Amino acid sequence: MAPSRISPPPSESPAPSGLSPEQLAFYKENGYLLIPDALDPATVASLLGEANNMLTDFSLDDHPMTRFSTGEGGSKHVGDDYFLNSGDKIRFFFEEGAFDSTGKLIKPKHRAINKIGHYLHALSPAYHQASISPANAAIARSIGFKDPRVLQSMVICKQPEIGGRVGPHQDSVFLYTDPPSAVGFWYALEDATITNGCLSFAQGTHLRSPVKKRFVRMPGGQGTGFDEVHGARFPKGQQLPPDGADPDEDAEEYTIGEVKAGTLVLIHGNLLHKSEKNLSGKSRFIYTFHVIEGENEYDERNWLQPPRQGFTKLYQDADS
Fold it and tell me: Residue 34's closest CA among 9, 15, 17, 6?
């Protein structure tokens, strides 16, 4: 794997009208953008407090003890009913490292959860306000969304000592639309550093890395798996790279993205990015949600299915 390099200084905070021309140019060229102070300290404290309250208050009595796995190390990707039916609920998924070899929980439950998801933006007032906001709507307009829909909102805890590695991946693999359109809005609720598992990015790979596979529900209710993409592999209007330009995700040079609490990171759905295991004694809480283009096809094979009323409209609800 090629050595990482440090990101350039984060760009300035967005104007009320959305991204500046310089910010938009950086995002289009590199596939990500760091926006410091997108959330003020009071909002960060409120969201972090809400997350900790949820971790303290949820019950183990009726919990299936579902562990969240990304498939690292040959383990099977999560795909039970508790996970598959979480699209319109707030549910808690454990770190694999929170259990011993016999399956016994060896961490306090508030320090054992990998993530909370996947409907925080609708069911938690604090997270709703941070997600369905005029500022986020303005950013979506800057990027070019016509009818952005919000989905898969979650707090990722990256717990001390056990917070799992997330290998190189593209968000559009997990939230596939035809053509691809996913963009991640990733808010740091604590400082994210090299030692506690910050993000890193393979700059520019969104321009040459097609979405070749998608994370789907397997036939007959047999959990989840990956299938070949038969539709578009790049967003609408994006110039296709020359044949043979596909990057080797492990050989890519990854730019480290250390950020302070309150920073917003925008992530293009085709961009290869990753985070390493948290071996430190400090957690790395973040809040993230994703936006897809409402006019693009999002079919019944995707692992996350829309609630009865459909995915949340960012423009209509943020502007109301």
Answer: 9
Task: Give me the long-range contacts of 16-25 (CB less than 8 A, separation at least 24).
Answer: 16/134, 16/135, 16/138, 17/138, 17/142, 18/138, 18/139, 18/141, 18/142, 19/139, 19/142, 19/143, 23/142, 24/142, 24/143
Q: Give φ, ψ of 311 to 5 degrees.
A: -65, 150
Query: Token pair of 130, please?
Result: 């941070």
**pLDDT digit string (tens) for 66-98?**
988 766 555 556 778 999 999 999 999 999 999
Answer for the pair 49, 57: CB distance below 8 angstroms, yes or no.
Answer: no
d(CA 172, CA 292): 9
Render pLDDT for 94-124 as a digit per residue (tens, 0 to 9).
Answer: 999 999 999 999 999 999 999 999 999 999 9
Q: What's the rounded Cα separation, in Å, for the pair 132 and 185? A: 11
Cα 52 to Cα 19, 57, 58: the distances in Å are 31, 9, 10
Please, what is the end-to-end C-alpha distance for the chain in angstroms? 48
What pLDDT band is residue 318 in, cutting at 50, 70 and 90?
A: low
129-165 pLDDT tens trace: 999 999 999 999 999 999 999 999 999 999 999 999 9
Give dist(CA 207, CA 241) in Å, integer: 7
